[in-house]
Amino acid sequence: MKRSKFSKKHSVTTSLFFAAMICLLSLSFARAALVDDIKQKISTKNTEIEKLEQEIEVYQNEIESLGNQANTFQNSIKMLDTTKRQLEKNIIVTEQKIDSTALTIAKLSIELDQKQTDINRLNEAIAGIMRRVNEADDTTLLEIVLSNDDLSSLLIEMENLQQFHAVAREKLQQLELLREELSDTRTESEDEKDQLVDLRAELSDKKKIVQENKDEKSNLLSKTKNKESNYQKILNEKKALKEQFEQQLLKYESDLRIAIDPRSLPSAGKGVLAWPLDKIRITQKFGNTEFAQSGAYSGQGHNGVDFGVAIGTPVKATLTGTVVETGNTDAYSGCYSYGKWVLIQHPNGLSTLYGHLSLIKVSSGQTVATGDVIGYSGNTGYTTGPHLHLTVFATQGVKIVRMGDIKTITNCMDARIPVAPLNAYLDPLIYL
């Protein structure tokens, strides 16, 4: 039986194709083994992270328990020591996340190489197939009939032509799918690289917060001389100064008269603002709460919402906006207010204040997006324990003033804080 020139070329092409496939499969198996090894290492890292996070939760429970106990010198030292251990565990967690992310990037790099190799292989295979298809298409039906001795050979030849067209379509579909997978893997790889940059920055930030914790303990020991009586004296002085200032602030804000246009505010609804933390635990709501009624705010209701959270937890912008200003009342002796704070103005008529931060990551005039880290939670300013304070203002009413403009005789004339008429304070929970 005489075989056509096309059949012979088809046989040779098929043999070469399968030989190339064997070589490429060997390389693919080696890459797959390496990827499996990396996946196992990532899984081990994630297990270690879960264990560390459980230990951090134990420390958090201890801190919350201490916060509910009497405010004594010994409890204050215990709080600082437990917070330090918690922060150090957090640093280890961040380091483990950095290792896990680096491994993920290495895995994706191998997968990118494999996908690119598969695409190159398919391109070569498709090119060979298309050449044969074009050759076949150039052969007339009469030439095919004349080149075959019998009907069965002719049928085989025609079937080969159909198979080539089918294989060409299949390979083109595979190529399109591989290209999509390559694009997705590249995007994932870039996301992981961005995450790695963020984690390294977070690691540096948390080390700074640990150092501030150590400095705070040293300062406390120096001021109190390790004596409970000295601690209580300092505590009472702080409380008296805070209450005096709050009375002045209440009078100042009560005298402010600004008409807030309701049309300038968004309609109440969940999701107008995003939550400022990944894990939410509300410890005090807005308004005349039980704690506020105890006289904690000099007769004024609580002007925001408090979230119980460990020191050093990333705090995120609740909406896209511009940082109006940042401040630190602790930088001025005798100032007991928000501590380290950030005020952001949003395009929907709202402004948000984040108080008692341990570290600020933004600056005045900076544009932030929803979910951007603007700082880390802390215990700065006057607090009864670590937490994040969130206030929502009607932008029309809020402004930033010197404390010296509120109280003419004060130790912290140049410290600055946001103030507003009482009607400009809004309940954050109607927007979160």
Textual characterization of the structure:
This protein has 432 residues and is an alpha+beta fold. It folds into two domains: 5-212, no CATH class; 227-430, Glucose Permease (Domain IIA), CATH 2.70.70.10. The protein is 57% helix and 14% strand. The chain has seven helices and twelve strands. Strands 1, 2, 3, 4, 5, 6, 7, 8, 9 and 12 form a ten-stranded antiparallel sheet that branches. A two-stranded antiparallel sheet has the order 10-11. A hairpin with a 4-residue loop joins strand 5 and strand 6. The radius of gyration is 34 Å and the shape is elongated. The termini are far apart. Residues 1-6 and 291-298 have low confidence and may be disordered. Residues 1-32 form the signal peptide. Keywords: Coiled coil, Signal.
The total beta strand count reads: 12
Secondary structure class reads alpha+beta
> What is the arithmetic mean of pLDDT?
85
Q: Number of helical segments?
A: 7
Beta-strand residue fraction: 5-15%
Main β-sheet: number of strands, strand sense, barrel status? 10 strands, antiparallel
SSE ordering: HHHHHEHEEEEEEEEEHEE
Coiled coil: 35-76, 105-255
Domain M23ase beta-sheet core: 301-393
Keywords: Coiled coil, Signal
Signal peptide: 1-32
